[in-house]
Amino acid sequence: MSSSDVDLRKRPLRVLVAKPGLDGHDRGAKVVAMALRDAGMEVIYTGLRQTIPQIVAAAIQEDVDIIGLSVLSGAHIPLTRKLFEALAEQGAAEITVVVGGTIASDDEIDELRALGVAEVFVPGTSLGDVVERVRHLARPKEAGS
Amino acid sequence: MDLDKLRASHAAWQTQASEDETASRFRQGLNLKSLYTPLDRQEEDFEQNIGWPGEFPYTRGVHSSMYSGRPWTIRQYSGYGTAEDTNARYRYLLDRGQTGLSVAFDLPTQIGLDSDEPEASDEVGRVGVAIDTLSDLELLFDGIPLERVTVSFTINSTAPVLLAMLVALADRRGIARERLGGTLQNDSLKEFIARGTWIFPIEPSLRLTTDVIEFCSRHLPRFNPISITGAHMKEAGADVVQELTYTFGNAVAYTTSVLARGLSIDEFAPRLSFATLIGPDFFIEIAKLRAARRIWARLTKEKFHAADPRSSAYRVFSGVLCRALTREFPLNNIFRVGVMGMASVLGGVQALSLAGYDEVYELPSEESVQISIHTQQILMHELGMNEAIDPLAGSYYVESITDQIVDRVWERLEQIEARGGMLALIEQGVVQREIANRAYEEEKLISSGQQVVVGSNRFTEGASPAAIRIQRPDPRVQERQTERLRENRRERNERDVTESLQRLTQMARTSENLIPLLIQAVQVGASIGETTRALKETFGEYREVVSL
Question: Between 20 and 30 A from B33 (CA), which of A54, B220, B440, B464?
């Protein structure tokens, strides 16, 4: 991190790690949440089985910079689409969205990106890589904004 | 053997050995070193710790002749889409020499939602087959002789409903209840630790699991009413010691709960079964299976005073650790799966499912399933795996690790009791946190390259996404299921359904066994969502302890 980055950073990045839908596999979500936290970010983990409106409400209430969706059931595309719709409806479209989990093909990665997803993390992505890519994604909001 | 002489020559050897060869390391919850000798085995009591196959303490296996008398069951975990889709896949599997079925259910079925409920919308038929009513189960097993092909159901919170459907189906087909075989996972407690398909709070979940075990013990003597499972804890990150500790911790909780119903240990323990996953730590996993048999034998005998030897036999279904498979170079997974399958067989499992090499991407294709079945058949027929029982017994290494696992798990089971039992530890999130921390530690080792994953964090030259043919789920599955639900509602007598559901809500407040009521409810056409809602009215819902 360069010194100018530090100056810009009025507060640490705030990240909501969210488990949408019915999928109960939370190893990845927890491990990534711990890695981001240890990298100095402020991390809120939602727990399992959150609806999209719950996730958006938590993101707004916690004033996060980034939402990370974790989906291993294969339902990532419809869930991500609904998330963007809900963010737009709630006037929170500036929140950056990343997605991780069992994502099948390059086509699906392209589809997620076309929806507006900033980063897609497939199985095998190293924690160091996740942290770096998240860190470079979003400039944190000004404190109190 | 002159141990003093051996000790002296070992000491002499040690002075010449490099540090690396003698240093001990901590992995999988165990202290490991590079060389094992008779000095590690000096206090061996053969009869007490190893013994004979099919006899206490079952270290060598649960059957006297093991695979030569009874080969393991080839039981691929499978299910997707509607009941018709999955029925076709089952016929394909049976045609290719599979010897048992293992049903994968979709998430709505697992957490008690009907396919037409809004929360179910993105998940119908996705990770397994959608089952809403008895008529779906009827289609699922159309043309499959349930009196000959045993079926294993990976279902937990809604296991009582699926059992009710299965019994109702067997009744319709004229199969006597006492002849009905099969297995329900029905391990509700581990859903709070890993996998997460909980519905009700912990206490009523345990009550329902106990209802199933009690009902089966009294009425379905050939059925396995539970498969106490470490698999998902392991997939969530648990090491070998954690996996066995919490599997047996749960087993103790279930056993205690069933005993409180007035059944004797020998009336139900012979039908308790287990499930595990085998990872890439080849010898440690074999030792784990041997240790698990000895631990369960001792628990049933010393803690629960079982007299029937069958009560002490740890019968286990095994799969392979899918998080050890890589997205890069997916064909490498065929070898990984084969070796994990080999460890399962050398460890003496009773049934085996091998994941497809493409499962990192999607549900396995037909081609991939064919490879998995062939892998099992190669293990069974070409590699001499059936010829000797417990062939690694007597290895200084494997025996020593087996003992260490037994000792550590036993010690930790005592700690669990001292800390108030499994339910308390699950309620407080202690178990969940411990496993997540272990997962994080391992992931950091992989991230830093200290733990090598070939093709993923080392030897990655030429890596590119595979040309895996992705089979998207049929987008019309939910529509088809919804239509069938409507048809079911048209055909049934609403008053019968309402009455049976009301009775369910009421009787849930009593200590009555709910399975007979559930059988009546599914017989008159009540759906999985309706029965679940009826029970929720009394039981409420679980609120997850979220902590990192």
Answer: B440
In chain A, how many domains are there? 1
Q: Are residues B71 and B201 in the same domain?
A: yes
Backbone angles phi, psi at A17, to 5 degrees: -95, 120
User: Is residue B434 domain-shared with residue B498, that is, in the same domain?
Assistant: no
Residue B459 belongs to a domain = no
Domain of residue B293, CATH code: 3.20.20.240
Name the residue range of residue B324's domain.
56-447
CA distance B473 to B362: 10
**Do B357 and B434 belong together in one domain?**
yes
Sites in chain B below the pLDDT cut of 70:
1, 18-22, 42, 464-473
Do B498 and B354 lie in one domain? The reply is no
Pair (B421, B518) in one structural domain? no
A75: nearest CB among B113, B126, B548: B126
Q: Select from B113, B119, B548 the residue whose CB has the most chain A CBs within 10 Å, as the one to mutate to test that interface.
A: B548
* ipTM entry: 0.91
Q: How would DSSP label each residue in chain A? A: --HHHHHH-SS--EEEEE-BTT----HHHHHHHHHHHHTT-EEEE--SSB-HHHHHHHHHHTT-SEEEEEE-SS-HHHHHHHHHHHHHHTT-TTSEEEEEE----HHHHHHHHHHT-SEEE-TT--HHHHHHHHHTT-PPPPTT-
Note the pTM of the prediction, 2 decimals.
0.94
My answer on whether omega of the bond before B57 falls inside 30° of 0, hence cis, is yes
Q: Which residues of A touch B327 (CB under 8 A)?
A: 122-124
User: CATH no. for residue A79?
Assistant: 3.40.50.280
Q: Is A99 helix (H, G, I), strand (E, B) or coil?
A: strand
**Is residue B520 in some structural domain?**
yes
Give the closest-approach CA distance of B5 to chain A in angstroms.
50
Look at chain B and report how many structural domains it folds into. 2
Q: Name the burial class of residue B303, with classes exposed (0-12), middle (13-18) and buried (19+) by CB atoms within 10 angstroms of its CB.
A: middle
Q: Does any domain span residue B37? A: no
Structural domain includes residue A5: no
B123–A22: do the CB atoms touch at under 8 Å?
yes
Place of tokens 């719709």: A85
Domain range holding A76?
15-135
Q: Do B231 and B288 fall into the same domain?
A: yes
B456 in A contact zone (CB under 8 Å)? yes
Together in a domain, B231 and B373:
yes
Query: What CA–CA distance (Å, rounded) separates B169 from B518?
Result: 13
Tokens of B202: 């912990």
Within a domain: A104: yes
Cβ count within 10 A of residue B89: 20
Does A37 fall in a domain?
Answer: yes
Tell me if B521 is assigned to some domain.
yes
Spatial distance between the Cα atoms of A130 and B4, rounded to a whole number of angstroms: 55
**Contact map slice: B 96-135 vs A, CB within 8 A:** 107-108, 110-111, 113, 119-123, 126-127
| Chain A CA closest to residue B323 | A123
Q: Which residues of A touch B107 (CB under 8 A)?
A: 21-24, 73
- Whether B67 and B141 share a structural domain: yes
- Please give chain A's pLDDT, 145 residues, in tens: 444 454 455 689 999 999 999 999 999 999 999 999 999 999 999 999 999 999 999 999 999 999 999 999 889 999 999 999 999 999 999 999 999 998 878 889 999 999 999 999 999 999 999 999 999 986 655 544 4
Residue A35 forms contact with B (CB below 8 Å): yes
Residue of B nearest to A123 (CA): B327
Residues 81 through 110 of chain A touching chain B, CB cutoff 8 Å: 102, 104-108
Closest CB to B447: pick one of A102, A105, A127.
Answer: A127
Asked which of B420, B447, B474 is the last residue of a domain, the reply is B447
